[in-house]
Write a structure and sequence with these properties.
Largest interface: A-B, 21 and 24 residues
Order of helices and strands of chain A: EEEEEEEEEE
Oligomer: heterodimer
Distance between the termini of chain B: 41 Å
Number of strands of chain A: 10
Largest sheet of chain A: 6 strands, mixed
Strand content of chain B: over 45%
Order of helices and strands of chain B: EEEEEEEEEEE
């Protein structure tokens, strides 16, 4: 693919519902990140996958958040029992290796009503 | 908790001036340092990367790194209105660790 692809681009949900956000990284990139950006704020680190290593989940804000990466490629971020404070843009990025340039997707705008 | 600190701004400079953006980080073992630019409503894009002490120049941009002071900066020469954006500092710790971003500095260049 040409770049990092995220879907959906926009998601509106009701409080208490579960949502799944998808990220399709650039082929061959071993590193994959999820970040969250609230309006006017910086990038909040959520989770990091690097090859076959155990993911770094230290940024996940609560146990309602989880993520997986299947076959070293596509990743899904799941938010259970969504709350209004979960409203933000969720950005996925991939990189060919650790400590190298990140390529960002266009993000998913999540709105929890 | 590894931290990356930036002055949120806004930093306002006139067209043609030098804009200086600063960043400090808490993890003394950090190895890789990046500056990303983010236009409103868009995703971040990489401007500069720097890995060793000193200056690194690319066109109108110069990144400066001082590991002893845990300080990294970005200079933009001959600032243009199109440089108006939020500039994000990002730092990698030890190999294999996550890239942590600062909250960003908003730059406004007036014509």
């Amino acid at each position: 693919g040409a770049g990092v692809s995220q879907s959906p681009s926009n998601k509106v949900t009701e409080k208490g519902k579960d949502v799944e956000l998808r990220c399709d990284p650039i082929s061959g990139h071993t590193a994959l990140y999820w970040y969250r950006q609230s309006l006017g704020q910086g990038l909040e680190f959520l989770i990091y996958f690097q090859g076959n290593s155990a993911p770094d989940k230290s940024g996940l804000p609560s146990d309602r958040f989880s993520a997986e990466r299947t076959g070293g490629s596509v990743s899904t971020l799941t938010i259970q029992r969504t709350q209004q404070e979960d409203s933000a843009v969720y950005l996925c990025a991939s990189s060919p290796a650790t400590n190298e340039k990140l390529f960002f997707g266009s993000g998913t705008q999540l709105s929890v009503l | 908790q590894k931290e990356v600190e930036q002055n949120s701004g806004p930093l306002s400079v006139p067209e043609g001036a030098i804009a200086s953006l600063n960043c400090t980080y808490s993890d003394r073992g950090s190895q890789s340092f990046f500056w990303y630019r983010q236009y409103s409503g868009k995703s971040p894009e990489l401007i500069m990367s720097i890995y060793s002490n000193g200056d690194k120049e690319d066109g109108r941009f110069t990144a400066q790194l001082n590991k002893a002071s845990q300080y990294v900066s970005l200079l933009i020469r001959d600032s243009q209105p199109s440089d108006s954006a939020t500039y994000l500092c990002a730092v990698n710790g030890q190999a294999g660790t996550a890239l942590i971003f600062g909250k960003g500095t908003t730059l406004s260049v007036s014509s």
